[in-house]
Amino acid sequence: MDIVEISKILSNKTRVNILKWLKSPEDNFPPHQDIDHFDDGVCVGFIQDKTGLSQSTISTYLNSMQSADLVIPTRHGKWTYYRRNEEVIQAYVDSLKDEL
Fold first, then answer.
1. Which positions fall inside the HTH arsR-type domain (predicted)?
2. Quick one: pLDDT at residue 16?
């Protein structure tokens, strides 16, 4: 876990919002039509709709978050779902407490 890299990623309000929304997906996104749970996260399309940003921008954001292990992708057919990686997020928070 790279505290500086994660801090850079979290310097963007939309990326922070995505992590906030994924913390309680049932409160922030509509139910999925083909899956009746949020265990694997939220479909990229729902995240894009909520942000109002382009698909390419959201893909770039999610890819950077995935490369830092902040989110975990799961494929369902042609769709990718994202959920928070709670272990990495907690390790980041703990590192901030310990190092700063």
1. 1-100
2. 98
Q: Which CATH class is domain 3-29+38-99?
A: mainly alpha
What pLDDT shows up at residue 57?
A: 97
Give residue limits of the domains in the chain: 3-29+38-99
Q: What would the mean pLDDT of 5-20 be, rounded to a whole number?
A: 97
Which one-letter amino acid corresponds to residue 51? T
Give the burial string for 31-61 (b: 16+ CB within 10 Å, else e): ebeeeeebebbbbbebbbebbeeeeeebeeb
For 32-97, the DSSP string reads: PSS-S--TT-EEHHHHHHHHT--HHHHHHHHHHHHHTTSEEEEEETTEEEEEE-HHHHHHHHHHHH
Instruction: Determine the residue type at 25.
Output: P
